[in-house]
Amino acid sequence: MVVGRTGFKFQNWAQTYGSSPELYFQPTTAEEVKEVRRKVNDDRDGGRFTSGMAECCRIDNDGADMGRVNEIFQVDREKNQVTVEAGILLNELNEVLTKNGMALSNIGAVSEVAAGGVIGTGTHNTGITHGILATQVISLTMMTSSGEVLECSETSNADIFQAARLHLGSLGVILTVTLQCRPAFRLQEIQFSSTLQEVLDNLNDHLKASEYFRFFWFPHSENVSVFYQDPTDKPPSSNASWFWDYFVGYYLLEFLLWMSTFISSLVPPINRFFFWLLFRGRNERADISYKVFNFDCLFKQHVQDWAIPIEKTKEALMQLKSWLEKNPHVVAHFPVEVRFAQGDDILLSPCYNRDSCYMNIIMYRPYGKDVPHAEYWLEYEKIMKRVGGRPHWAKAHTCTRKDFEKMYPGFNKFKNMREKLDPTGMFLNPYLEKVFY
Length: 437
Hints:
The protein has helices spanning 30-44, 90-99, 115-120, 158-164, 196-201, 203-209, 240-260, 267-279, 289-293, 313-326, 374-386, 401-407, 411-421, 430-436; strands at 10-11, 18-19, 23-25, 57-59, 62-64, 72-76, 81-85, 102-103, 137-143, 149-153, 173-180, 182-183, 186-195, 212-217, 223-232, 282-288, 301-309, 336-341, 356-364, 390-391. By secondary structure, it is an alpha+beta fold. It has three domains: 10-66; 70-183, Uridine Diphospho-n-acetylenolpyruvylglucosamine Reductase, domain 3 (2-Layer Sandwich); 186-391, FAD-linked oxidases, C-terminal domain (Vanillyl-alcohol Oxidase, Chain A, domain 3), CATH 3.40.462. It has an eight-stranded antiparallel beta sheet, with helices on both faces. A five-stranded antiparallel beta sheet has the order 6-7-11-9-10. The protein has a three-stranded mixed beta sheet with strand order 3-5-4, with helices on one face. Strand 14 and strand 15 (223-232) form a beta hairpin. The longest helix is centred in the middle third of the chain and has 21 residues, at 240-260. The protein is globular.
């Protein structure tokens, strides 16, 4: 029997969002998930829950943490496929795949996240021949609000599968996921400095030059750091002095950014100094693929991340740069991270029907201190909307249903499917009500 407990508070890593469910459950099996669903349905008659999006399944005012539904069901080495329960963390999955000579072809910067949450929010990395992480899902099982378990793939419940690979937690409870992998591989990362104009003028060449290409732009300057990541046979290696500078530098950065909360004019020279300290010149390293894909976020931050049509990359970045130059009272922390993803057919994917560029902006929170960012955020969103952007579902944005109806050709199809699968609104919350209604 699953027993809910009171007094639990969910807080995201950056401490920018949180929620306090009336009851908190930790089911360990699909049957216990069904028990939670039944208990809530009986006790609360399918009402609304009050938390925002988080990496758990929400039912009514109660939260069901899927972190213990985390078994490896099947590893198929011949097909390079793995079937797992949705609560498994990617860092656990990465180790299992490595032991079996397999790897995910692409993962995001963080692996301390559950498989169900990763696909449900549209997590991505970079690589124009690779889609968002959900495109690696070839089948899944999902429990609906009625307790029915659906098997979904391109050949079974195909319409639901098209929606469920980026589900926002709004269709049901994802129980299992089957992922298409590839043979294990190492990556060599080559990082070198350039200028914003050079990268934008030669963007297609850069995209062709590396399987996993991305770059950092340092606002208030022309400085860019380019990253090429490509499969290699080279043994694991690193630039020891660069990593020493990296970790020392970031602790110094947090202190200097805290100082800049009192003297905002420090931000532009801070950006230029850390480009010089950490990213000038050329650095190389090689390692197991997931260790290169992953990136340590050393301290808390506010984040926005939008996907725009890839052909709008230069226009959008130059508009942002020009606006910052015309408004010197507004400061922007480095980096603006620019990544790329292949188009797909997932209804609520920001890359739906188009190859995309993701422009990620941040404002650090040194020692947890909030920094002024509203004006920067607002202008960035205006630019993103002008060039046809779509926000990352797991990041901050101010969009509502009217915006999403314009942005996503398949939005109403998803909404109608959501209402059919969850007619009582068991999986809605205030955030999702703003999205759909």
